[in-house]
Amino acid sequence: MNTLSKTCWLGAAIYALLGMIFGIVMSASGDHTLAAAHGHLNLLGWASLALYGAFYSLYPQASMGLLARAQVALAHLSVIVLTPGIALAVRGEGETLAKAGSILVLLSMAAFLAVVAFQTRRAVRPA
Ligand code: HEM
Ligand code: HEM
């Protein structure tokens, strides 16, 4: 396992654990107001980061370079900013953090597209 995959999967497991605790607290209290924040913590934190980790593990060459490291850093940052951002927006306490988080999610995915595109070009280049 390379360092970048490790960073993805460690983060993914931590976000999953937090997301599940969040879900259990919601279930136990019967208050589902923040379901969207819980959903995105799990989907961006657990599912998306685990997928990024799987990609960097399958293609370790793609994990070497500044773009890949920036992509993963943006993915982590987007979870950390968007989750409380959605919670604040749902509670009517401001949308700034949600907007910033959304842009970070978008930037992270755009960077991932670039990493995949570079990797694809590398893969089809004759040896
Ligand atoms: C211990 C585990 C979990 C518990 C107890 C839990 C609990 C809940 C509860 C109570 C809701 C609100 C349902 C409603 O009001 O209709 C919910 C919504 C949701 N959960 Fe979970 N959940 C868990 C794990 C997960 C995981 C692992 C994922 C994703 C990989 C996930 C994704 C979602 C999504 C997408 C929603 C809907 C969000 C929305 O309506 O905007 N949950 N969950
Ligand atoms: C820029 C990033 C994103 C933003 C700003 C965003 C925003 C939203 C909003 C505003 C809702 C409606 C919440 C509600 O009505 O309670 C929603 C629902 C949802 N989003 Fe996202 N989302 C983003 C990324 C994603 C991603 C990457 C996934 C999956 C990997 C995802 C999965 C879902 C799901 C499953 C729901 C619940 C749909 C339902 O309840 O019917 N979102 N999202």
Q: How much of the polypeptide forms β-strand, as a percent range? A: under 5%
Count of the separate structural domains: 1
Termini distance?
A: 25 Å
Major sheet description: none
Return residue spans where pLDDT drops below 50 for at least 5 consecutive residues.
none
How would you spell out the order of helices and strands?
A: HHHH
Bound molecules: protoporphyrin IX containing FE
Broad structural category: mainly alpha
Shape, principal axes of CA atoms: elongated
- How many H/I helices? 4
Write a brief caption for the model:
The protein is mainly α and 127 residues long. It has 4 helices and no strands. The protein has one domain.
Structure report:
- The protein has 127 residues and is mostly helical.
- The protein has one domain (3-124).
- It has four helices and no strands.
- The protein has helices at 3-29, 35-58, 66-90, 96-124.
- Helix 1 packs antiparallel against helix 2 (35-58) and helix 2 (35-58) runs antiparallel to helix 3 (66-90).
- The radius of gyration is 16 Å and the shape is elongated.
- One protoporphyrin IX containing FE binds at residues 36, 39-40, 43-44, 47-48, 102, 105-106.
- InterPro entries: Cyt_c_oxase-like_su1_sf.
- Keywords: Membrane, Transmembrane, Transmembrane helix.
- The chain crosses the membrane at residues 7-28, 40-59, 66-90, 96-118.
Topology diagram in text:
Layout: H1 3-29, H2 35-58, H3 66-90, H4 96-124
Helix pairs in contact: 1-2, 1-3, 2-3, 3-4
The chain binds protoporphyrin IX containing FE (2 copies).
Residues 19-20, 23-24, 26-27, 32, 35-36, 38-39, 42-43, 46-47 line the site of one protoporphyrin IX containing FE.
